[in-house]
Write a structure and sequence with these properties.
191 residues; 3-stranded mixed β-sheet; 5 helices; 3 strands; elongated; single chain
Amino acid sequence: MKFKSPLRAGLAAAAVSLLATAPAFAQAAAAAAPVVNKGDNAWMLTSTVLVLLMTIPGLALFYGGLVRSKNMLSVLMQVFYTVCMVTLLWALYGYSLAFTGGSDFIGGFSKAFLMGVTTDSKAATFSVDANISELVYVCFQMTFAAITPALIVGAFAERMKFSAIALFIPLWVTLIYFPIAHMVWYWAGPD
């Protein structure tokens, strides 16, 4: 190709070089996108299972062994109810209240019913560009939300009716645990 002016020749050369480097820019942008770290994901799943095992058989049997034999089943049921109720509340609105933006004290309902949490969504970790699956993060945080009020059951073992516990646990996690979890763990930062 022959150009009549040096300006046109320079512009043509610049356009050719930009077109040649476009795939490199696309690859760099794809590499900069955070990806799920499989090792971190596996460790978080292992930790989730360990915390769940500390709660249902571990804590339930521990507290059951501390009470009189006639109250063993009652304490087992209280711990099991606590874990089941908190797990349901966590999936309905707890994760959203704890880990979405809102105010400094409580999150919003943008992820209520785990809306927007998919197999492709990612949660940031404390390591730069090391993400885990958001579903794994939801489950990991859920186990801690469940074990915390289950620890409280030991404080009133043999002292409260089941109906009082059935009312106390949902109110406590909603009014105390979810706001505290938001204040301690939520950060809207980039990573």
